[in-house]
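Key idea: predict the complex, not the pieces.
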Amino acid sequence: MENLLNIFIKSIFIDNMIFAYFLGMCSYLAVSKTVKTSVGLGIAVTFVLVITVPVNYLIYNYLLKKGALAWLGKGFADVDLSFLSFIIFIAVIATMVQIVEMIIEKFSPALYNSLGIFLPLIAVNCAILGASLFMQEREYHNIGEVTAFALGSGIGWFLAIVCLAAIREKLRYSNVPGPLKGLGITFILTGLIAIAFMGMMGIKL
Amino acid sequence: MSATEKEPLFSAKNIKLLTGPLGKNNPITVQVLGICSALAVTVKLKPALVMALSVTVVVAVSNVVISALRSHIPDRIRIIVQLVVIATLVIIVDQLLKAYAFDVSKQLSIFVGLIITNCIIMGRLEAFALSNKPWQSFLDGVGNGAGYGIILIVVAFFRELLGSGSIMGYPVIQKLGLYSAGYENNGMMILPPMALILVGLIIWFQRSRDKSLIEKK
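Result:
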């Protein structure tokens, strides 16, 4: 249990998807204009992460990894399908996003309209695929750890985008030099927040 | 159809497709695409070069494939079709890198896989390849890949020079003897946040040169 909590906290603050790895930057920068839409996107991303990462973990460990097919019989014991992982992961993610899109369209048309193009683009949100690839690289021990990691990463992403959106809402009233307006200042802002987050590096949990 | 077929391969319009993304229509600083995987690979110049090259190849080839298939792909499942094409190409690139440039492939770690979700590729497929001919799409892909590459290389150049005091692994600062004069590497440059701030500065520079890019709000 303690171990799960460690992974959870670590993936929110220390290995934050945005500030430590820059994953999911495109929608992060584009949707963070108002707090309301960013909350919606943050929730959608967290939700998709919590579903896809454990599913991909199971697929990877029981179908793709070297020796994973051993349960099929002796002949399959050293089949290594891990080169297929990219294409399988992205297929799972695209399917899940389609489902989430249909659910949101049905139950919250307002949210659906305000997310606009970015809902289908969650499928190509680097944070989602990135989390699956990190899962593959870091070799978590069981599905509980993987879920804690996915939930933590999602919440970390959520906090990051809401935080940036709140700052950008205030920023609209400040006197930024012309060429830096919009995108430029947002980049520098994210950089500064990321530097603050670096203070948490090296914390041993 | 015949009128457009006679269009020369490198007409002024096509050249513009190739050069536009290098400056005025740069994928990173103007279209805000593909920042995700761009910034984490720019600590050193060499991985940045490899990354730029891989992305260019994938963008160009997937643009051609999707453009050639564009009238056969049903609109509703186009995203999955595009992802499958991209993922296949990325697997090929990944396997090639593992075979011929293993150390760079280790340094890039998951970011090779993340080319799949690089918004530049999806963005160009959606915005360009689905409605244009293969040759134009190819030029567009190469142009956008190069535009992405340029930013990557500029950022990586400064980060490696100021952060580790070398260019492509060659210890420039040490050879110039600046260390004995009291110069020290800026450790901050190696940290990820500096990549963001550098891109911010590049945007600032570009937009103050070209006022038409300044955002209204």
